[in-house]
Each structure stands twice: as structure tokens, then as C-alpha cells.
Automatic annotation (TrEMBL):
Annotated SUPFAM superfamilies: Trm112p-like
GO cellular component, one term: cytosol
Origin: domain of life: Bacteria
Family indicated by similarity: Belongs to the UPF0434 family. In the N-terminal section; belongs to the LpxK family.
Listed name of the protein: UPF0434 protein IWH25_08755
Phylogenetic classification of the source organism: Bacteria, Pseudomonadati, Pseudomonadota, Betaproteobacteria, Rhodocyclales
HAMAP family associated with the record: UPF0434
Gene3D superfamilies documented for this protein: 2.20.25.10
């Protein structure tokens, strides 16, 4: 994943910062609890393609 691309990508829902998770090959938006997949080094920034993350315990 290109570091320059990571600097400019934001969550399409809330426009917040994304966390790159190399092991899972995805970009995570913690506020929205969505994980966007990266396929063939291309981030798929579609809400319909995002994986819903489980709620964190309180």
C-alpha cells in the first residue's frame, strides 16, 4: 500500500482518518466501525463492500 495514498484517503461516510491493517489487508474507520478491503493493492472505498466491525466492549 502506497504511503502517499494512505495520507489522502478518508472514510467516505464520516471523512475521518483510516487505520491501515496490513495483516487483514484493509483500511479501518474506527468511528464508523467499518473495514474497507484492499484488493490487488487498490482500496475499495465503497460502503457496500465494507465489513461491519463488532462493537467494542464497554
Amino acid at each position: 500500500m502506497d504511503a502517499r495514498l494512505l495520507d489522502i484517503l478518508v472514510c467516505p461516510v464520516c471523512k475521518g482518518n483510516l487505520e491501515y491493517r496490513k495483516a487483514e489487508s484493509e483500511l479501518v474507520c474506527k468511528p464508523c466501525k467499518l473495514a474497507y478491503p484492499i484488493r490487488d493493492d487498490i482500496p475499495v472505498m465503497l460502503v457496500d463492500e465494507a465489513r461491519q466491525l463488532p462493537a467494542e466492549p464497554a
